[in-house]
Write a structure and sequence with these properties.
Layout (H helix, E strand, L loop, with lengths): L2 H15 L3 H8 L3 H8 L7 H11 L3 H6 L7 H45 L4 E8 L3 E10 L3 E10 L7 E10 L2 E8 L5 E6 L11 H6 L1 E7 L4 E13 L8 H12 L2 H20 L4 E6 L2 E8 L2 E8 L2 E10 L1 E9 L5 E8 L4 E5 L4 H17 L1
Antiparallel strand pairs: 1-2, 1-8, 2-3, 3-6, 4-5, 4-7, 7-8, 9-10, 10-11, 11-12, 12-13, 13-14, 14-15
Helix pairs in contact: 2-3, 9-10
Length: about 375
C-alpha cells in the first residue's frame, strides 16, 4: 500500500465532502494530527479506520488501499498490494524470530561462560590451629579464579616461646611436602599466589593444601612440635541469591567459637575438679612464675587473685552462655573495680582498656595449664 498515494486520495475525498481535518477527526474519534499524517502519507491507515473511512466516503476498502476510484485493473492492483503486505509481514515475523533466537543463544552462552568462569571461583576460609599452646589470632585464606591470598597471625600461650628456633608452614600432597614459608619466630605468615606459577600454593593442588596444612615448630634444644592448621570454608560464590547479612554474620560468629575456646572451658573444668579435691571451700593458693595466686572456683567461674607492681588484682574467666574474661583491681578496702572486660568468643573488648588483654589472657592460660600439669 502506497501511503503517499492513499493520502492524496483521502484528502481528495475529504475536499469533496467539504469538511475540515478537525471535523473528520471528531467524526472518527481520532486526534487531528492523525488525519494530517494520513493525508500527507506519513502514516498508514489501520484496518479499523479503513472500514470507517470506506463507509463515510462511500468507497470500497479496495479503492482506499489502491488510492484511486474503481477502474480497470484495480482488483489486480489491490490483490498485488495485499500479497505484498502479507509477504512483508512474513519477512518481519521471520526477522523477529531470528533476532529472538540470536538473543536467546547469546544469553545462554553468556550464562554458560559466567558459570564456567566464576561459579565457585571465590572461596574464603578462616584459619585455626589444632593446639593447646598456639592460637590463630587472625587467619584467612581467599581464593579467586587467578589469585590466592593468605594471612595467618599466630599467638602463643606458652612460656618458653623465646626458645623457638624456627617455624615452618607447609602442606603435604602424597609424600611431598610444599613449604609455604619459614620464620625464625612466631611472625605472621602472608603471601599471594598467582595462577600459572609454582610459588607457594599450586592451583592444581589447592584442595589438597587446604586439607593437609601443617605448622612445624623447631626449638633450640632440638625438640620440635607439629601443629595441624585447620581451614574452614566460610563463603563461596555457589548461590544465585546471596545470604542475608544476618545469616553471614551468624555463620562467622559460629566460626569464631573455635576449638581453643572450647578447650579453655574443658581445662577450666579440670582445674575446678582439682581445686574441689585439693583445696578448701573451692579455694586454694598456687605459686607460679614467682607469684602467689589465690584460686577461687565457683560454678562456671574461675578467679585468680594476685599482686602485680604492689597492686592487688584478680582475673576472672566466666562461662555463662558465652566465655568472657575480666581484669579487676582491688583497693585497700577489698573493693573491686573493673579494669576491662573481654568477650573471648567474639574477640571483642566490651568495656575498659583492653590494650594488654592478650598478655593477661596468656597468663591465665599458663596458670591453668600449670595447675593441671602439677
Amino acid at each position: 500500500m502506497n501511503n503517499e498515494q492513499v493520502g492524496k486520495f483521502l484528502k481528495k475525498l475529504r475536499k469533496e465532502k467539504g469538511i475540515s481535518q478537525y471535523e473528520l477527526a471528531d467524526i472518527l474519534g481520532v486526534p487531528r494530527p492523525s488525519v494530517s499524517k494520513w493525508e500527507r502519507g506519513k502514516m498508514g491507515v489501520t484496518s479499523k479506520y479503513l472500514a470507517l473511512l470506506s463507509e463515510f466516503y462511500g468507497v470500497t476498502t479496495d479503492e482506499l488501499m489502491a488510492g484511486e476510484r474503481n477502474k480497470k485493473g484495480l482488483s489486480e492492483k489491490v490483490n498485488e498490494i495485499t500479497l505484498n503486505m502479507l509477504d512483508n509481514n512474513i519477512k518481519l515475523h521471520r526477522t523477529i524470530k531470528y533476532t529472538i533466537g540470536i538473543i536467546i543463544i547469546l544469553v545462554v552462552a553468556f550464562l554458560a561462560y559466567y558459570f564456567y568462569t566464576f561459579y565457585n571461583s571465590v572461596r574464603i576460609y578462616s584459619i585455626h590451629l589444632d593446639s593447646d599452646k598456639y592460637i590463630a589470632k587472625y587467619g584467612q585464606l581467599t581464593k579467586t579464579s587467578d589469585k590466592i591470598y593468605f594471612y595467618l597471625d599466630i599467638d602463643y600461650l606458652i612460656e618458653d616461646v623465646d626458645e623457638i628456633e624456627s617455624v615452618k608452614l607447609y602442606y603435604t600432597i602424597g609424600s611431598k611436602a610444599v613449604t609455604l614459608g619459614e620464620k625464625e619466630e612466631l611472625e605472621p605468615f602472608t603471601f599471594t599466589a598467582a595462577k600459572g606459577y609454582d610459588e607457594f600454593i599450586n592451583f592444581d593442588e589447592f584442595d589438597d593444601a587446604v586439607k593437609n596444612m601443617h605448622m612445624y615448630i623447631n626449638f633450640k634444644d632440638g625438640d620440635y612440635e607439629s601443629v595441624d592448621v585447620k581451614l574452614k570454608r566460610e563463603y563461596s560464590n555457589t548461590k544465585v541469591l546471596p545470604d542475608s547479612d544476618k545469616e553471614v554474620d551468624d555463620g562467622f560468629k559460629e566460626s569464631k567459637m573455635i576449638k581453643e575456646d572450647i578447650k579453655v572451658y574443658e581445662r577450666f573444668l579440670e582445674v575446678k575438679e582439682i581445686v574441689e579435691k585439693h583445696g578448701k571451700d573451692n579455694m586454694m593458693d598456687f605459686k607460679f612464675e614467682g607469684k602467689i595466686y589465690h584460686i577461687d572456683v565457683l560454678d562456671n567461674r574461675f578467679t585468680a587473685t594476685f599482686y602485680r607492681d604492689n597492686k592487688k588484682y584478680n582475673m576472672k574467666y566466666s562461662y555463662v552462655n558465652k566465655e568472657q574474661f575480666y581484669l579487676n583491681i582491688i583497693d585497700e578496702n577489698d573493693i573491686e573495680r573493673q579494669v576491662y572486660s573481654f568477650d573471648i568468643q567474639m574477640g571483642k573488648c566490651l568495656e575498659g582498656d583492653c590494650t594488654n588483654h592478650m598478655d593477661n589472657y596468656r597468663e591465665m592460660i599458663r596458670l591453668i595449664n600449670e595447675i593441671i600439669y602439677e
